[in-house]
Description:
Structural class: mainly beta
Amino acid sequence: MSVRARRAAALTASVLAAALLTPGAAQAAARPLSHPGNENVASRPSLSTQVTHATVTARSHGLTAALTPVSPRGSGLSIDLDASTSRTAVPGAHVTGYRFSFGDGRTATGDSSRAAHRYARPGTYTVAVTVTDSTGHSATVDSTIEIAGSDFTPVAPTRILDTRSGLGAAKAKLTTTTSVHIPITGVDGIPADATGVVLSLIAVDTVENGAVTCYPDATTEPGVSNLNFGGNQTIDNLITVPVPADGAIDCALSGDSGSSADLIGDLEGYYSSGSSSSYVAIQPGRILDTRTGLNTAKTKLANGHSLTLTVAGATATTSTSSTATTTETLPTSAITAVALNISTTDTSGNGVLTAFPDGSGSPTGNVLNYFSANTDSNPAVVPVGADGKIDISSIGTEASTTDVFADIEGYYTTGAGGAVYVPAAAITRILDTRSAAGGAVIAGDYRNLTGLTTADGVTAYVLNATITQPTANGNLCVFPTGSINPLDVAASNINYGNGETIAKFVQATAGSTGTSFFNDATSGSTQLLVDEFGYFTTQ
Length: 539
């Protein structure tokens, strides 16, 4: 597989209403950050939203055992059991101990009336508490609970945040001493029980180097980043953020003194406890390429024009070698959205791509900003139209053209066999080659991730990967370990240039022996940081 073209250093500066850069203005090259992601990774704090189940009671020998299961929303597989209202009516007696049973073979015993537990996988569990008093009598009560991950509802890209105009947040640039508060629930139909939001986040009009971190409101800012930028740059990334009790998220900035940026956020969907679409991870593969005519016309996409991709029944190229090519064919029905990595290359000018369900009309949000002579890419979750198709449009003021290619990582479905999303118990730095054994990932080498969640039924991981200090141009590919030779991987995830720091979201398919990153470059090396934000698991 050939190395993708490098990202050009000269980009344009000001932004149009559609987040397109004004033609002709010079943009400085991004400088590598000395602190991509902030090395001190904090544990994911508990979210304050709670779903309280009915209190159940049982009485024996004057002793009343009471149990209230409480599910912290956004905590995925966690449960809190509260027996604090247990009482004894025996004169002079008092409660002396509690024994909690979580229904999966695990128990907790002590004098505390509360116990917390995290399950290995979603399912139906019978939880119980046995309460003992000072007379030696005990009473037991149980309750049946459902532990479930979250399903996904796709949305055609819709702008819900723009700090330049005050849309969705205060009209002010983000600085290292401020944060952006973004209401989520109630916006564009997002329900009150939303557990996560998926946004295409864009930093524009940037000053100095910086790293943006988005996290649940009223929680501690984690020590990782979602988006890294250089001075005078426009750059985007997909993010998935848990939604807490008050229905809002925050974004903060760390970076050089004087660092600042305006933020644009385009909604691509949300996770909730309601039944919607589950996720099917596949071997990543190329599903669209205008250079070869793969599943579309063999012609460049011009500004002001669209191309159509028939997703239903489409065949993606999942591996290529000197002896064989393997493919995967998607189902012909029940697909509601596709997880893609969309790229542009061989561009003659600047533009913006937007992707949306066929037949729905052009949306207000974007999925990728691209620039003249660059190879640019960005992940996107694109809703599929009722006819099984999506459209990709190029918009802008220049008479530019670009080739477009897209790689699929999986799809969302209302059919059987999908997996639900579960936020990680703690945002975890899985890999930092700057301090890990083995050092930088050299050209042609790969790095298998260790320390990922090992819960039963995991099919894919929600990751953010950051490239920093590369010594040459290259391309990073993510693949399921144990299922394919890295040299045969047909998909790509991050195109990077010499000296660039860039972060990209990845929904990485889990292989039989893990997940790996391959440095598809002909020379040099790069440092790699990988953070886990959650995973998908079958029920």
